Structures are given as C-alpha cells and as structure tokens.
Amino acid sequence: VTFCYLPNCRVLKDIRSKPFHYSDEATKVLQEKWVDTTDIRNTLTFGDIDFDKSNIKVGAGKLYIVEGKTKDQTPIVIEVINYAEKAVLQEIKKSNEQ
C-alpha cells in the first residue's frame, strides 16, 4: 500500500484509478509509433504535473498537463481531462525541454 501525500501523486493516482480513454487526436499520435500506451502509463505514474497550466475547468472536468518521457527518453507532454467518472487523454506532444 502506498500513500500519496503530495498533490502531484494524488492527482496522478486519481487519474489512473478511472476508466481511461483516448481522443481521436491522441490515437493518431499513438499510431505514429514514437510513443505508446506504456509510455503514457509510465508518465501517469512517474510524471510531473505542471500545476501552473493545470487544474483548469474544461466542461465537467479539469485539464492537467503532465510531463514525462518515453522509453527512449524522449521528453513528452500529455494533456488529460479528469472527469468524475473517467479520464480522457486529449493530446500527446514531444516536449521542447531536454
């Protein structure tokens, strides 16, 4: 059993605890093969939320920007909308930061 005390850990754990869906745009990026669902899962486990750009209300959910890396160490940024009953991956981008 792990306990999440810090905000980053709590939000990522909440997102991982729900049914996870992919937008059409995110699905297209995944089909490019430079990033895969394992990279997304790892980012949602070990990534860092950019709280300056996150916790923004989008309809009935909140937008979170999460920074992580692929298995090849390519920096990525994912945008997830966290709803009460599900989480939706909206976008996947390569990050400019190394």
**Biggest sheet details:** 6 strands, mixed
Q: Beta-strand level of the residues, as a percent range?
A: 25-35%
Order of helices and strands: HEHHEEEEE
Radius of gyration over alpha carbons? 13 Å
Number of helices: 3
Low-confidence stretches: none
Mean pLDDT: 94
Helix % is 25-40%
Global structural class:
alpha+beta
What are the main properties of this structure?
98 residues, alpha+beta, six-stranded mixed beta sheet
Please give the structural blueprint.
Layout: H1 7-16, E1 20-22, H2 24-30, H3 37-46, E2 48-49, E3 56-58, E4 61-69, E5 75-82, E6 87-94
Parallel strand pairs: 1-6
Antiparallel strand pairs: 2-4, 3-4, 4-5, 5-6
Structural features, described:
- With 98 residues, this protein is of the alpha+beta class.
- It is built from three helices and six strands.
- Strands 1, 2, 3, 4, 5 and 6 form a six-stranded mixed sheet that branches.
In short:
The protein has 98 residues and is of the alpha+beta class. Helices cover 28% and strands 34% of the residues. Strands 1, 2, 3, 4, 5 and 6 form a six-stranded mixed beta sheet that branches.
